[in-house]
Automatic annotation (TrEMBL):
Its EC number is 2.7.13.3. The keyword Ribosomal protein does not apply. Coiled coil: none annotated. Gene3D superfamilies: 2.10.70.100, 3.30.70.270, 3.40.50.2300, EAL domain, PAS domain. One of its GO terms (biological process) is cellular response to nitric oxide. This is Sensor histidine kinase RcsC. Residues 438-691 form the EAL domain. PROSITE patterns: EAL (PS50883), GGDEF (PS50887), PAC (PS50113), RESPONSE_REGULATORY (PS50110). Residues 213-264 form the PAC domain. The gene is rcsC_3. NCBIfam families: GGDEF. GO terms for molecular function: cyclic-guanylate-specific phosphodiesterase activity; protein histidine kinase activity. Residues 10-126 form the Response regulatory domain. The modification 4-aspartylphosphate is found at D59.
Length: 723
């Protein structure tokens, strides 16, 4: 084929008459066409398959296969569907023209023809065919895009009942484009009755006033399945008159399902599947509105499992989670239909009970909830005996908004915990005051750290051999503006509960170490600084690391720092405590067991953890003038001596107590008898003045002791028979 002509349109002429074929060639080639010839129908089909022409000129009357049959066959072949076929008919042969169109012809030309016009005719035909093909392609890609996006489209011309619907619109509605009509009535039939008025109204406004709309509604397919759709529509005007309404219908069922799932997750607790705090607030608000209308009371119970942390710490979190699920299931079985059971998080549950009339009924309901815990829970083979404390708040006395009812129930819960757990308390105004005071205190304690309102006082420890000050105990004070000096007992438990003990404990340790180093440098080089570390602080903070950092920062040698710990440090999570104590021993600090005699008084603790110092609790020293008190104190001193530990007697206030300690070889005394705790500047003065115990107040002759030990290494603090 000639390179120059290969892109020209190719026309196939099928005619048994060689003359006609020649005339066609003569007419078309000068007009920019290539022409392929075929002398019969069979040849024409073969040429079509071989050359894939752009158009066909087909004679009607040919021997063998006529032009109609040839046309039909070509239409049935691949690519034959849309090729322009022009049938050559005899003049005024109306029947042939009809037959030609029925056989699939695109156009016809009557013979004899004006050959000059054939080129124009063919060009027009090819242009129309290209446009049709482009249109078909766009329709196909639009249908594909609509299918992908689940968007169907429709169009109605004003005045006509039938519209034009895209295939995807039929699919979304579950209708058949072959049999179902594409009109508004057919669409509205699929919409649930209760949603029809809104859609009708929107369509009326669109039609009458051109108001476009976007509306979400449901449809039901003929098979009964439900879908959510978004209907959008607009009106198109000509000369201020609406002529066409066009719209789309998007299937948004999946999006709706995801939204519903997200909403469910946002409102439910993942572990127990119960409503969470979010949904609970709504439910309480609804119940309040109902109770208000019906002039009824409403009960909100806040439950907190007793010692849940113990179960989590000792059996592990999977068991803790299993227990929470089991509790949720049991509570679900215990509440009435119409009540709401929710989980607030952690081990806190809430039950909302509408329409409880009398206080007796409220108490009855609370006891019923306590009973839910009477039998043990079995989780992963563990039999767990769990109780709960319940705070009850009643609308309207306990509050008229949901946050208030929860807050007052919390105050009542606090009171139930305070009364020994496994019980309920109904909120009273007095509890409210207590809660508010506490909230205020927490706030102020936060401020205290930032505003430098914390101070350390120091109390001397006196060596009973020499009468000299051998060490100091750092004791925390809070100078609260407008109130005065607050003792630690009033705020340390709260600091522990709120976690504020971490920054406070750190400040105490760093300040005490720095002060000890300052006093060393000022000429008191042997002073040992004792710092209290509470059990909770010990658990919540990495104390060994903090100690290392405070020592490095201050330059104080480890042997001049003493940590006073109580036995409760060892009660929970023993393994971690043991590890931390070993680390502290390695660092080289002095370990003192504080308040000895008030706890388990276990000799095995003293041996196992190699404490260096035992501090005899003030309550024993107070009693040393009685026989029993004296005997107990003597036993502790003897026991400590046998374990090579030094003893410090706390709270020494009288000469009699001091004499007793000297007589019984106690090593060190601490108490008001020598000095009260003093601020740093006053303590500097005391140290500078070389204040000490007079020689006749110090230890004299040694004394023999008897140590009474019970089995299992327990110290049996029995009265000693005097020798
Ligand atoms: N975790 C921390 N606990 C601390 C810290 N500072 C103090 N505390 C603990 O608070 C409790 C009360 O302490 P405080 O009110 O300072 O009382 C101490 C002494 O003032 C008091 N004491 C001393 N001598 C006497 C006396 O002769 N009579 C008498 N009635 N009281 C006296 O004893 C308290 C010291 O006790 P102890 O620690 O057991 O040696 C107290 O438990 C402190 O431990 C802190 O920074 N962190």
């Amino acid at each position: 084929m000639n390179e120059e002509t290969k892109d020209l349109p190719l026309v196939l002429i099928v005619d048994d008459d060689a003359m006609t074929r020649m005339l066609v060639v003569e007419a078309l080639e000068p007009e920019g066409f290539r022409v392929e010839e075929a002398a019969s129908g069979i040849e024409g089909i073969a040429a079509f398959q071989r050359r894939r022409p752009d158009a066909i000129l087909l004679d009607v009357s040919m021997p063998g296969m006529d032009g109609f049959e040839c046309c039909r066959r070509i239409r049935g072949l691949p690519d034959g569907e849309r090729i322009p076929i022009v049938v050559l008919t005899g003049n005024d042969d109306d029947e042939s023209i009809t037959c030609a169109f029925e056989a699939g012809a695109t156009d016809f030309v009557s013979k004899p023809m004006r050959w000059k016009l054939l080129g124009y005719r063919m060009r027009y035909l090819l242009r129309a065919s290209t446009v049709l093909e482009d249109l078909a392609r766009s329709k196909a890609s639009l249908a594909f895009a609509q299918e992908l996006a689940h968007v169907g489209s429709w169009e109605y011309r004003v005045g006509s009942t039938e519209g034009s619907w895209s295939p995807e619109l039929f699919r979304i509605l579950g209708l058949d484009p072959e049999t179902d009509p594409s009109n508004f009535n057919c669409l509205i039939q699929r919409v649930p009755e209760e949603e029809r008025p809104q859609l009708n109204h929107a369509f009326m406004n669109l039609h009458a006033a051109g108001l476009k709309f976007g509306l979400e509604h449901r449809i039901f397919r003929p098979d009964g399945s439900e879908r959510f759709v978004l209907q959008r529509a607009e009106a198109f005007c000509e000369q201020d008159r609406t002529v066409v309404l066009r719209g789309t219908l998007q299937d948004i069922t999946e999006r709706k399902m995801h939204e519903a799932q997200i909403e469910y997750l946002a409102n439910h607790d993942a572990l127990t599947d119960l409503p969470n705090r979010n949904l609970l607030s709504d439910r309480i608000a609804q119940s309040i509105a109902q109770a208000h209308r019906a002039v009824q009371r409403l009960v909100v119970m806040l439950l907190d499992l007793d010692r849940f942390k113990f179960i989590n710490d000792n059996f592990g979190h999977p068991v803790g989670d299993g227990l929470l699920q089991a509790v949720a299931a049991r509570l679900k079985g215990a509440v009435r239909e119409g009540d709401t059971l929710a989980r607030l998080g952690g081990d806190e549950f809430v039950i909302v009970m509408p329409a409880l009339t009398s206080t007796e009924n409220v108490e009855l309901a609370a006891r019923k909830v306590l009973d839910v815990f009477s039998l043990p829970f079995v989780v992963e083979g563990h039999e767990l005996h769990v109780t709960t404390s319940i705070g009850v708040s009643v609308y309207p006395e306990g509050g008229t908004r949901s946050e208030m009812l929860l807050k007052t129930a919390d105050a009542a819960l606090y009171s139930a915990k305070d009364s020994g757990r496994n019980c309920y308390q109904i909120y009273t105004c007095a509890m409210g005051v207590q809660v508010e005071e506490q909230a205020e205190l927490i706030n102020a304690l936060h401020q205290a750290i930032v505003q430098h309102e914390l101070e350390l006082y120091y109390q001397p420890k006196v060596d009973l051999g020499s009468g000299r000050v051998s060490g100091l105990e750092a004791l925390l004070r809070w100078r609260r503006p407008g109130i005065g000096l607050i003792p630690p007992d009033s705020f340390i438990p709260l600091a522990e509960e709120t976690g504020l003990i971490i920054p406070i404990g750190e400040w105490v340790l760093r300040t005490a170490c720095a002060q000890a180093k300052a006093w060393h440098d000022a000429g008191h080089p042997d002073l040992i600084m004792a710092v209290n570390v509470s059990a909770r602080q010990f658990r919540q903070q990495n104390v060994p690391q903090l100690v290392l950092s405070a020592l490095a920062e201050s330059g104080l040698a480890a042997r001049y720092l003493e940590l006073e710990l109580t036995e409760s440090v060892l009660m929970r999570d023993r393994e971690t405590a043991v590890k931390a104590l070993r680390q502290l021993k390695e660092i080289g600090v002095v370990l003192a067991l504080d308040d000895f005699g008030t706890g388990y008084s276990s000799l095995s603790y003293l041996k196992e953890f190699s404490f260096d110092v035992v501090k005899i609790d003030r309550s024993f020293i107070c009693d040393v003038t009685t026989d029993d008190g004296a005997s107990l104190a003597r036993s502790i001193i003897a026991m400590a001596e046998s374990l090579h530990m030094t003893t410090v007697a706390e709270g020494v206030e009288t000469e009699g107590q001091l004499n007793f300690l000297n007589t019984n070889r106690c090593d060190t005394m601490q108490g008001y008898y020598f000095s009260r705790p003093l601020p740093a500047n006053e303590m500097s003065a005391l140290l500078g003045a070389g204040t000490r115990l007079p020689a006749d107040s110090c230890r004299r002759a040694p004394m023999r002791h008897t140590l009474a030990l019970a089995g299992n290494d327990e110290v049996k603090l029995l009265p000693e028979t005097n020798t």
